[in-house]
């Protein structure tokens, strides 16, 4: 996608933004602007983010648990004990057999880890075969009998099972275009869908997140929103010349 200079809208890859008309242009092809969606805010600075993206409260420590995830030790810079259930304050050692934390002659009872808050789920689109497409895309059958992802919402899936068109358009496969009255645009090529296990969110420069398959675009306030299209080019204007970042 292309992030438009108004910092409110975006266009598919290969198109240019016409902010005055509210359209995306590519030769004779014209589409209505795509409106950016808000990005998921970054976790509060006070929270501790664990390696699996789960979250522990401020002043705690992430420690592996017996299930392979993370729990929260209620002290900072803690020592995680080998039983994966308990922890000790910094500079103490774990005595699992006695259930104590030791430091010279000082002895403390074990600290018990608390569950971490799971990472927020990314609301992707689940296809009938349980494969996954990015948010704001459409599942369309492919030639192999599975599903591919059309990079626009509520799309029309074409009969060749390779292409798709925006909502309200009809597929003209022989001409390679999407028609709507006197308007036409080039066919969109579907992208492969992914197993749910491969889905990852997109990290924006300010630490906020967009869903898989989206692009981070800077908003007017200086934070980031999510363009519901992949592979965005970000354009900026300087001294009446167009630069591509």
TrEMBL record:
Classification via SUPFAM superfamilies: Granulin repeat (SSF57277)
Residue ranges of domain Granulins in the record: 4-17, 81-94, 158-171
Signal sequence, start to end: none
Subcellular compartments: Secreted
Keyword Secreted attached: yes
An annotated GO cellular component: extracellular region
Entry keyword annotation includes Secreted: yes
Keywords per UniProt: Disulfide bond, Secreted
Primary subcellular site in the record, as a coarse category: secreted
PANTHER family in alphabetical order: GRANULIN (PTHR12274), PROGRANULIN (PTHR12274:SF3)
Family: Belongs to the granulin family.
Name of the protein described by the UniProt record: Granulin-like protein
Organism: Elysia marginata
């Amino acid at each position: 996608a292309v992030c438009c200079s108004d910092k409110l809208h975006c266009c598919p890859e290969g198109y240019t933004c016409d902010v005055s008309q509210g359209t995306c242009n590519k030769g004779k092809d014209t589409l209505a602007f795509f409106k950016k969606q808000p990005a998921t805010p970054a976790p509060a600075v006070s929270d501790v983010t664990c390696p699996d993206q789960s979250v522990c409260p401020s002043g705690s420590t992430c420690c592996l648990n017996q299930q392979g995830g993370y729990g929260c030790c209620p002290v900072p810079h803690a020592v995680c004990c080998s039983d994966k259930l308990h922890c000790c304050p910094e500079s103490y050692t774990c005595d699992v057999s006695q259930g104590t934390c030791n430091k010279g002659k000082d002895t403390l009872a074990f600290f018990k880890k608390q569950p971490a808050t799971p990472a927020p789920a990314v609301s992707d689109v689940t296809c009938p075969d349980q494969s996954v497409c990015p948010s704001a895309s459409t599942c369309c059958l492919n030639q192999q009998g599975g599903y591919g992802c059309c990079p626009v919402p509520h799309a029309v899936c074409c009969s060749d099972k390779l292409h798709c068109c925006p909502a309200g358009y009809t597929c003209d496969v022989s001409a390679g275009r999407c028609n709507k009255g006197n308007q036409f645009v080039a066919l969109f090529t579907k992208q492969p869908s992914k197993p749910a296990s491969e889905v990852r969110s997109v990290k924006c420069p300010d630490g906020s997140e967009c869903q898989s398959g989206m692009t981070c675009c800077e908003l007017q306030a200086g934070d980031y929103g999510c363009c519901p299209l992949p592979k965005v080019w970000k354009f900026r204007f300087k001294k009446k010349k167009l630069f591509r970042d």
